[in-house]
């Protein structure tokens, strides 16, 4: 028995050097390798167990698996298992081989194996800046993904609220081991974007053999505060006719972030009115009143012209 085993092992070792030649000859002759791996493609989470079967469809002298961590062979059966209790080898490429009694004498099949690892973390930030941002300027958001594999299966999606605004793939990269990658999104915010929430989502697209739904890790939400200069809803000059002793209301409310401060000026006012959006008084006489709303990003002014109404005339506002 021991002699037979040594003979078969010797035959196998000699055949290794001829394997590719034999495989090429088999391909040229059109003969089948007669080996089938089941499943032919597997997707394994880092650290999980794995078991794959290799079956020969004709009598075989030696049937086995070449593997760095779990080599095995058989002389009597038409099938042999490749088993690993915890797969942690990122470069493992198991090969099933067969040494046959008839031509082609030797052939092999390689197992298509994908070892994956979800990211440790996904984070989002403003590049070289912090919120708030200024309206109309360019900013970059960065999404960073830590320790993910295989990176070529990674799809990184950017969202503004519930809307996807950008999709970044890494198919051009080749590392099998976990890596750190990042993606950048250019934004030019306006005042409508004030309070907008951005996030990114890392998804491993591992195919039909992979887990369903695909493994996904999301970042926290990044809320963007946008600063913008004051603006009036109706910036045009207002002309108002008044009757004697009637109370006037001059509304200078403007929208801005930070909230604007207000200054009223007029040759009629006895003193300057500070930080009042609405000027209300019965003693406002005829004349031109200028309101200026300002914040750190700019200022806007608006004029109110008060005229005395002649008797018998109705109130007018222009």
UniProtKB/TrEMBL annotation:
Residues of the Ig-like domain: 119-218, 230-307
Entries under InterPro entries matching the protein: ICAM_VCAM, Ig-like_dom, Ig-like_dom_sf, Ig-like_fold
Gene Ontology MF term list: integrin binding
Keyword Signal recorded: yes
Signal peptide span: 1-17
A Gene Ontology BP annotation from the UniProt entry: cell adhesion
Lineage top rank: taxon: Eukaryota
Family annotation (PANTHER family): INTERCELLULAR ADHESION MOLECULE, INTERCELLULAR ADHESION MOLECULE 5
Name used for this protein in its record: Protein turtle homolog A-like
SUPFAM superfamilies in alphabetical order: Immunoglobulin
Gene name of this polypeptide: LOC107596817
